[in-house]
Amino acid sequence: MSTSTTHRPARAAQPADARHLHPEVETLPRERLAALQLERLRKTVKNAWENVPLHRARLDAAGISPDDIRSLDDVQRLPFTLKTDLRDHYPFGMFARPVGELARLHASSGTTGKPTVVGYTGGDLDNWADLMARSLYSGGARRGDVVHNAYGYGLFTGGLGAHYGAERLGGVVVPMSGGSTERQVSLIMDFRARVLCSTPSYALAIAELAEQQGVDLAKDSALEVGMFGAEPWSDAMRREIQARLGIRAVDIYGLSEIMGPGVACECEHHAGLHGWEDHFLFEVIDPDTGRQLPEGEAGELVITTLTKEALPMLRYRTRDITRITTAPCDCGRTHLRILRVTGRNDDMLIIRGVNVYPSQVEAVLVGLENIAPHYQLVVERHGRLDHVTVETEAQPGVDPTAYDGIARKVAHQIKSMLGISTDVVVKRPGEIPRSQGKAVRVRDLRPKGV
Ligand code: DLL
Question: Is the CB of 366 under 6 A from ligand 1?
């Protein structure tokens, strides 16, 4: 583990046609990966126990000392860490290093209460840049590519995370951030960007504006790869973005509490996202019982960091719902794959007993005739039942007198695919708010605390 700072855009040593950026770790046999994980898990528990009072108190209460970690299964004896722990110890109470020894802070605002603050040593930033470079490479980015980075810069980890990863890869970064969508289009064209980094919803907003300006990004731009994440998105949305931008759309996952973007990323096979197991230990648990689930079963993703110095995380409950497989991947990488994150536990709606994630509604809507791929779900309480109105938009050029008929067809389609009854409102083109970062998919009008 290096302790240098990330402000050094080291050029990657790999030739442009190699299959992996760091083959020595990306294709490490699983037994050796497990041995490395165990060694690092022990160090992480020691770091947490020695330096973070909350972790020490919880480990002591559970009767576990760092020396008790003898196998990877012992991770199940460790207490969980929750997002509320970070909030309750705002701002620096979970840090394992004095703040003066850190190199950077990030924070996420959240909808209520105090923000969640995360910190990094120079060594943490160095590892992050490496993992993000590895992720970009696995998605198809290469040294020398112009990387147009439309993730928001600032406290959000997307902008700077992608930025330093692209530099580490040897890319030429355009630090655009979100917003100024017209300018995004002209710079993508003028600078001949090959790689676009943004949320999937913002990629669509860029595509839409280009079309309005008469620019055909699919035909005339140099874009080939999109690295999309930070929010759930469906395969239908992937097809839509691929067609409109003329690129291969790659799913990339991460969260600030664990690091930021680059915790897991798809390879060229798009068959799940390789989670980088030399730096993280992944589990899937039953969210109700907290028990670890066997491989392949859907549940809540739990991550333990293995190399973080400033903010070691023991069994962090992500609230993200997914499945894990360790089956070999055709790309040759040995690191496990998490399947597409369909949504967060907190975003799940229960409509007359049926569990639904907004991304499942998206999968039905996107690609339907006359409907544009923009939507919001408005959730209200009618008596004791939740009620959802799906607001979506007509494609430009559709006669407004046809909107009601289209709405009925969409409601029918949602009922037959997902088994839930919804009201559907078709709005005029441009009426659904466009995102510049994470899209707001749900407007929750239910009374609070009920
Ligand atoms: O969104 C980090 C990131 C930036 C990831 C850019 C990828 C690209 P947070 O703001 O802390 O960090 O939000 C983390 O976003 O727990 C998931 O619920 C969601 N999320 C992130 N990536 C994906 C994805 C960044 N590919 C939260 N698919 C996570 C689905 C995702 N959900």
Answer: no
